[in-house]
Amino acid sequence: YGIEPVPGEDNQYIAYVAYPLDLFEEGSVTNMFTSIVGNVFGFKALRALRLEDLRIPVAYVKTFEGPPHGIQVERDKLNKYGRPLLGCTIKPKLGLSAKNYGRACYECLRGGLDFTKDDENVNSQP
Fold this sequence. Notes:
single chain, alpha+beta, Alpha-Beta Plaits, 4 helices, 4 strands, monooxygenase, monooxygenase activity, lyase
């Protein structure tokens, strides 16, 4: 909601950005952070970028309940021990129907991966 030049620097700016909270899934730290910084750092038009400050409203912070369990529970569920867990992110992140997204996940898991991950802005799929 505002841009100002960095004092004493050519072609450098500070951008102030604000997002409405209803863009983010309640209780999802992952959704919030990847929505804010996920793809932005990959924009080709940007030569350099850094996040210097992040302010999260208290009402939204209260929706974070913390992780339900740790890595040992995940290993127990998967029956995978003594090695790294292998996963992937399904691409494209948008544009697949729920059926095709599910099929892509199935094929990845069938091929030997331990898990798949929703891409940055894919969450709460029907």
